[in-house]
Amino acid sequence: MYLKHLFLLAIFIVALSAGLHTCLGAGQGSVLIVRISSEIARPTVELVTRSIEEAKAGGARLIVYELNTPGGELGSVTDIMNSFNSSPVPVLVWVAPSGAAAWSGGVYILMSSHVAAMASGTTIGSAQPVSSAGEIVNEPKYINALSGLLRDNARLHNRNETAAQEFVAQNLNLGPEEALRFHVVELVADNLQSLLTQLEPYSLVFARSDMGTFAWKLVLRDSLGGLDYSKSFDLSGISKAAQYTYEPSLNIRVLEFLSNPLIASVLLIVGLYAVIIGFKTPGYGAEIAGALMLFLALVGFGIIGISIAAALLFLLGIILTLIEIKTHIGVFALAGIAMIVLGSFLAFPLPGWTVLSARAVESARTTLISVALVMSAIFGVVVYKVAEARRMKVKAGPEQLIGKPGIAISELAPRGEVKIEGQIWRAETLGEHVKQGESVEVVSREGLILRVKPKHPQT
Asked: How far apart, in whole angstroms, are the C-alpha atoms of residue 262 and residue 386?
């Protein structure tokens, strides 16, 4: 028995190792393409974070972010800048396609990339901060702080510091020609293959400057000899590397949906009223649905992070399931299962699952749904049977004999013995005497004595 189990375990480990080797090994030397084409918000931060994790796990040589954005939240923008600066995989931000723009927060993201590029007809600039009410912020405190942030990132990536400051202070806007001439971007390309081909003669190095600090530089490989650098990435042959487009996982899609201000506000209002209605009319599940809506509204407003939300949904689902076991109402089971499934969707895919293992992620998600549905069906049947059993009367004991027919095995005058369903009971007649052998019907009981009456044949 033990040998059989060990043999099956060995087969599983070998198959798993082979699958991981296929997923991870196929990604060596690949290029990961990620598209950002909306306002910069928390879902964008999640997208960037996950894509960097996937690129690292898959052994990618380069991440290309195709950027087209009007800007977004300052907190989300700075989080993305920090992710770029700490990324173990080089990051290239490419403002594309033709006609696209990287305004406001998009400029910060572009300037914090290891390599910056633009397509023909694109625009970058207008990085002066704007309040939530849509008013331009002119306070020197904020202008100076953001100008310094953009300047220092330009310095870190060996770009035009003056232009970086003017993006904020003067709302400077540049096209690809000016951006290339003023050394704000390194490349101009209208398609991905041209962009990667232009990179091939270069190496990306983290080199020491004249001031003793380090900065990222795109340097021709023939010119590396006189540089003092601590990190380097050889980009030769990058145009021939396998290319994979990153598809945002379901949790990012859910977060994008919940982060919509209209959706979050509706969930908050409807959830609040559902909780009130649920307290007024308990037992129908309105309070649970309302609480879930309020919870999702908090996720949408950014008060609760998506990872914490997934963990809390798991916990709430388990608690509601345990409550269902005690109460047998039914609604707690359905709500618990729904929360566990939703939490599972928010949690997938796990960090380290590469973009090359999309089939494995989809398979896991399909398995999760199937298991959840099967368990829901089983749990529903169990709850129904328990509820049905609670509604039924106990089948053992004298109470179930009430209304049953029987035969007097002795004369009842007024007491004697009767036979009911094969068992002999002490009995007492109500009213008439009952002769031996006559039919009787149980009316009630008192202790261990049944009260019976003659059962006359129907005509």
From this structure: 42
